[in-house]
Design brief:
Order of helices and strands: EEHHEEHHHHEEHEHEHHEEHEHEH
Distance between the termini: 73 Å
Number of helices: 13
Strand order of the largest sheet: 9-8-10-11-7-12
Oligomer: single chain
């Protein structure tokens, strides 16, 4: 880096055109976003990334680019989430942890995208699933709770560490009242299990998913199907668990058999139970936190990996809920 007064210039050589395009983003949108985050100026000239600005700005921008190197090096698009995650790691002195996360590739999707945790809390979640027989993941929509669990489950199935996958969720609120819906039972529950099918399709493709479903290697079923069973040699995912009652939660947790592991996911801000009814997820995450073999992971709006607007929506509702909580705590004046 050469200095010009308080200004400087740093040039990074990129390995190939694919890496350059992945780092720059469509119409160089990624570089523009990085400029907004760091204050540095970034220009792509052929296979050279030129960073200019004050020394502190250049160092910050170059450090972020380096942390996301495992992504653009493979020709994978660098997203706003990736930039913000890297910057957050730098701000908290967790750069080395973030660098290790970049190398933690879990699988490759049907579209060729490398699938990896994208925030440090997601990394801790993946590590927890690999080390514990029972993992709870609590967090808002878009934080990758179900998708990461499905990715790991498919990988363990491929590596023959488990013999089957069992994916389940409560259907139509917690009571699973399906009678008013048209069609047979499978047609009734399919709309509520669709997110699980979507995750499988993105990993395995629709054709292979169908074959494995027909063979019983993968089972996607409503929670009521779990009663009375013992799930051995399986990777079990209970999704939307905030809509289980305490009795349902206890029932499904006690289904776990030998050589199996279970991941329970949910968003406790979106409980569809009747007013006053305690969520089984809330109770279980409190009762079992600290129990040997159990991990409770809590994701936040900072871990949202969908459209950037989703993160802002989650934060806006969280602030609204916080204000309502403060209002309830404030004693109302008495009128005489």
């Amino acid at each position: 880096m050469s200095d010009d007064g308080d200004l400087g210039r740093f040039v990074l050589d990129l390995p190939d055109p694919d890496a350059a395009l992945a780092l720059a983003g469509e119409a160089e949108a990624t570089l523009h976003r990085l400029e907004a985050l760091t204050g540095a100026s970034l220009v792509l000239r052929g296979l050279q990334l030129v960073i200019t600005g004050r020394s502190s700005q250049i160092e910050r921008a170059a450090a972020v680019v380096e942390l996301v190197r495992p992504i653009w090096r493979e020709g994978q698009a660098v997203s706003t989430v990736d930039l913000q995650s890297a910057l957050g790691a730098l701000n908290t002195g967790r750069g080395e942890d973030h660098a290790a996360m970049g190398e933690q590739v879990l699988a490759r999707s049907q579209k060729g995208n490398l699938l990896r945790p994208r925030t440090l809390r997601q990394k801790r979640y993946v590590d927890a699933m690999e080390r514990h027989d029972l993992t709870f993941a609590l967090g808002p929509a878009g934080t990758g709770k179900t998708f990461l669990a499905t990715v790991l489950a498919v990988r363990m199935l491929t590596e023959r560490k488990v013999e089957r996958l069992v994916l389940t969720r409560p259907a139509v609120e917690a009571g699973e009242r399906l009678g008013f819906l048209p069609g047979d039972l499978q047609q009734k529950v399919d709309p509520y299990l669709r997110p699980l099918y979507d995750a499988l399709h993105s990993l395995l493709g629709a054709e292979k998913t169908t074959v494995l479903l027909e063979k019983g290697v993968i089972e996607v079923a409503p929670l009521a199907y779990m009663r009375g069973r013992t799930l051995s040699d399986a990777f079990v995912i209970l999704d939307e668990a905030q809509n289980t009652t305490p009795a349902q939660m206890r029932m499904v947790l006690t289904r776990l058999g030998e050589r199996s592991r279970m991941v329970v996911t949910g968003d406790i801000t979106q409980v569809d139970l009747a007013p006053g009814q305690l969520s089984g997820l809330v109770e279980a995450s409190e009762v079992l936190d600290g129990v040997e073999g159990v991990s409770v992971c809590r994701l936040t709006s900072a871990d949202v990996v969908r459209h950037p607007l989703v993160q802002r929506v989650v934060e806006a509702y969280a602030k609204r809920d916080e204000r309502k909580g403060d209002e309830r705590k404030t004693p109302k004046p008495r009128h005489r």
